[in-house]
Amino acid sequence: MKNRHRLNIPRVSVLSKDKIELIHLSSMEVLRRTGVVVKEPSAIAILKKGGCIVDGEKVRIPANLVEWALRNNPPIVTLCNRNGEPAMSLAEDNFYFGTGSDTPFIIDYETKERRNVILKDIENTARLVDFLDEISFHMCMGIASDVNLRISDIYHFEAMINNTEKPIVYTAWNLYNLKTIIKMAEYVAGGEEQLKNNPFLALYTEPISPLILAEESTQKLMFMAEKSLPVVFTPAVIMGASGPLSIAGSLIQGNAEMLAGYVLANLVNEGTPFIYGGGIISMDMSSARALYTGPEEMLGETALADMARYYRLPTFTIAGCSDSNIYDHQASLEGALWILLSAINGGNLIHDVGYIDNGLTACYEQIVVSNELIGMIRHFTHGIEVSEETMALDLINEVGPGGEYLTSEHTLKNFRKNWFPDLISRVPYETWASDGKKDLANRASDRVKHILKTHIPRALDNQIKEKLRNIVMSIAG
Questions:
Q1: DSSP letters of 178-233?
Q2: CATH number of the domain at 70-381, please?
Q3: Phi, psi of 422 (to 5 degrees)
Q4: pLDDT, tens digit, for every residue of 285-316?
Q5: Which residues are registered as beta bridge partners of 349?
Q6: Given a cut of 70, is residue 98 above it in pLDDT?
Q7: Which of 460, 451, 465 is nearest to 132 (CA)?
Q8: Distance (Å, rounded) from C-alpha 150 to C-alpha 73?
Q9: Bond into 210 cis (ω within 30)
Q10: For position 93, what pLDDT does the model report?
Q11: What confidence tens digit (pLDDT) does each residue in 427-458 have?
């Protein structure tokens, strides 16, 4: 597992210690006074037994229970690769980028037209992720329209696990499908205990804002707690729609929703591995569209990272996405801003690389360009090494005034430590022109085609692959 720690880089923070504590106390007041609606009867019974105040489906959670649950949450979540080897240590300054999930549309890398996602796109994006060095985990990037939609999530998981060895963050439509996916994962891992000890996947599921623990998401949360497997339980609060228009108000509400889930999971199984985070999303009131790249959301995401550090929990956040309808200058600009911010605001598990069109459309080119930008920004976050070798005092004295360093042994030894791009152009105009005057979008498209033509992921064991296929086909009928 690569060392992903930043070196001496200032962290971006938007909340002071006093404000963090005020947000925390306010969230607990929401849980105590307003409470949450819980739609799963077995969850209500567990919360009541744990000390919550229950009135029908409405559950009010006392502060001491919240504090108890937070003390139980592990500060580090390690996700492995498909082979059970540690791949991502979600803690402190470590940051990892991955794709997004469940878009209905995709930009076809051949025709450049927006179309419905098909299962082949899930396979292709998994292969891209498997190849690209800076994309550390995979989410399916779409909802396949050419399979039975009732079990498309199961098809997605099979496509992902067959086409990348990297960790998977997945969605499941319901508890039955989740159980099937976990059964498949246990086959791959070599058993239930092996998957628990070396998890290569994490479930993404959500409460419903405002302040509802829905039946299916709550069932999934409880099942993951029983299995002691990692879960991202994250709200998507749209300011002015499903939450207050103010960032602070939506932050308090979203935090309360997460804390309610943490309490429930810990009552099911103390120490359930949780990944904190979510979306504090602004809405364009002129179009009624939720924005992925508004400055308000960037502030909200950074505030969530501040809260996660306060709670000593791994953080789930956003980057590499855009509200542009196509892959263009806007998509690159917004994607780059998000990547830089997420790298320095303390996010650990950073998703949605490759989203455009307000999260409705996946884009191959956005993925490969983001991979390059992540490499550039990761190089920046390594900071400046100050040592006898890098200070080069003897070399400066040797070269002296008016000399040159190009032919020095020091330059030859160290120049490869600088960052070099694959897609970003640095060549002279004449060279660029003679190569067809390709812009970044053209070069990215060529890169996608080359990877998908040449990269063959390491295959699963044939017996395991056949078992997974049989499970899917038995459900598909």
A1: HHHHHHHHHHHHTSHHHHHHS--EEEEE--BTTTEE-HHHHHHHHHHHHHT--EEE
A2: 3.20.20.480
A3: -105, -35
A4: 888 888 888 899 999 999 999 999 999 999 99
A5: 96, 316
A6: yes
A7: 451
A8: 33
A9: yes
A10: 86
A11: 999 999 999 999 999 999 999 999 999 999 99
Residue ranges, comma separated, of all CATH 3.20.20.480 domains in the chain are 70-381
- The helix (run of H) or strand (run of E) holding residue 333 is helix 329-344
**Per residue in 190-215, is it b (16+ CB within 10 Å) or e — as a string?**
eeeeebeebbbbbbbbbbbbbbbbbe
Residue written as tokens 């295959």? 459
DSSP string across 246-315: SHHHHHHHHHHHHHHHHHHHHHHSTT--EEEE-EEE-EETTTTEE-SS-HHHHHHHHHHHHHHHHHT--E
Helix, strand and coil in the chain, % to nearest 5: 50, 15, 35
Is the Cβ–Cβ distance between 117 and 140 less than 8 Å? no
Using DSSP, state whether 116 is helix, strand or coil. strand
Order of strands across the sheet with 58-60?
53-55, 58-60, 36-38, 212-213
> In the numeric block, which tokens belong to residue 304?
């969530």
Terminal C-alpha separation, the chain: 40
Q: Quick one: which H or E segment has residue 152?
A: helix 152-163
CB 72 within 8 A of CB 266: yes
Place of tokens 């609606």: 37
Please provide the DSSP assignment of 389-415 as one string.
HHH-HHHHHHH-TT---TTSHHHHHHG
What is the phi/psi pair of residue 135, to 5°?
-100, 110
Cα 286 to its chain centre, rounded Å, is: 29
DSSP class of residue 175 equals H
